[in-house]
């Protein structure tokens, strides 16, 4: 992911992407549903607990919806407040949204022959006093609003991408049983004819057929663990694509009698599964003479430094959205390549929560402190909102490049990189919620009603996850949900 339109230096490496190079989607006239063998369309959404839900419409009725002035389906107000079969506090059973269909999100579902999927927008039936139909609780709408604001007020555009780490299980109860215990990137984890090898190749085929750029897949370090890496897209497209990618992984594993889980960490003595989030920041404004390199981050542009400064400042509060379950905090610890617990950054430092990747002129940020229990729309919305503050305010980066884990640096070493009083990430989701509730800027950008309702659902959800009984039963419940 590149951050500059200028000519790349000879130090550049890798495939370079720009927002204008991402693929466009078919219009309603080009869907050719019957010709493509599509019989059913899944009208799909992702709730605050990152559960994917959908309604299945036959093509005949799906097409008929588009003869109306507002193509969509009705969904209860309680939809975004559901945890299991119960409603979180603050949600009611009365009232209904129109879930307005967004054809730009249309994709075929090769894992379910004859099916396609489309996302949408939670909208009110009648406009608000301001004239808006958009619900302040709609995750996709929150992301789109913040991306639009970044472009309109600061001239920023973005590319985003996700890594998908997951474990393939042959059983989940009473204890999870992994399919293959071979090591990281080891050929023994892809034995010819084995079910796990078939699953991974079918996942790759299905993603390519669905129009998602697959960059690679490989064996990860934990027992039964694999990773799929897909290409960058604009933020809304990237969030839609990772939802489709995860559904592809779940369903193809299920087809072969396996369970794929994105649970953050199944074993305390082995690696966890993250959803490392890559983000490049593209500015329409060239760095002027006053935007000279400073002591910290001299290889970055002024825009990147400003974005990074407030991203790090808000990172502890962001954890309520990017590490949203009790299980998230078992993965993010110091010294195990999961980002660590200090709010810092480092060039190709896997023990920093924000890793600077790529050569000068083609940098992007990798957030290692994200896992797949988080709603991807809310991950990108909150991260972009946090960094936008710095760009608009012209913030100066006050911390430097951590060349080793901050937890293992001496006080003198930390002081040398501006970490004399380092920020720390919360160690529980309860602490993360408290920090989010106290962050006035994020509440303003995400919306006070959104933050209030999100916190209510998150708290209710943790009670659901942790009330399963024994530790083994809690792990089973976590796997069943993620």
List the helices and strands and how they pair.
Layout: E1 40-46, E2 52-58, H1 59-65, E3 72-76, E4 82-83, E5 86-87, E6 96-108, E7 115-123, H2 139-154, E8 156-171, E9 177-178, H3 195-209, E10 214-219, E11 225-230, H4 235-255, E12 259-261, E13 277-283, H5 302-322, H6 328-331, E14 345-347, E15 354-357, E16 364-367, H7 376-393, H8 411-416, H9 429-438, H10 440-446, H11 448-466, H12 471-481
Parallel strand pairs: 1-7, 14-15
Antiparallel strand pairs: 1-2, 3-6, 4-5, 6-7, 8-9, 8-11, 8-12, 8-13, 10-11, 13-16, 15-16
Helix pairs in contact: 2-7, 3-4, 4-7, 5-7, 5-9, 7-10, 9-11, 10-11
What does this structure look like?
The chain has 482 residues and is α+β, with helices and mostly antiparallel strands. It has two domains: 19-144, Roll (Ubiquitin-like (UB roll)), CATH 3.10.20.70; 150-481, Glutamine synthetase/guanido kinase, catalytic domain (Creatine Kinase, Chain A, domain 2), CATH 3.30.590.10. The chain is 32% helix and 20% strand. Strands 8, 9, 10, 11, 12, 13, 14, 15 and 16 form a nine-stranded mixed β-sheet that branches. Strand 15 and strand 16 (364-367) form a beta hairpin. The model is unreliable at 2-13 (pLDDT under 50). GO terms for molecular function: glutamine synthetase activity. Belongs to the glutamine synthetase family. This is Glutamine synthetase. It comes from Rhodonia placenta.
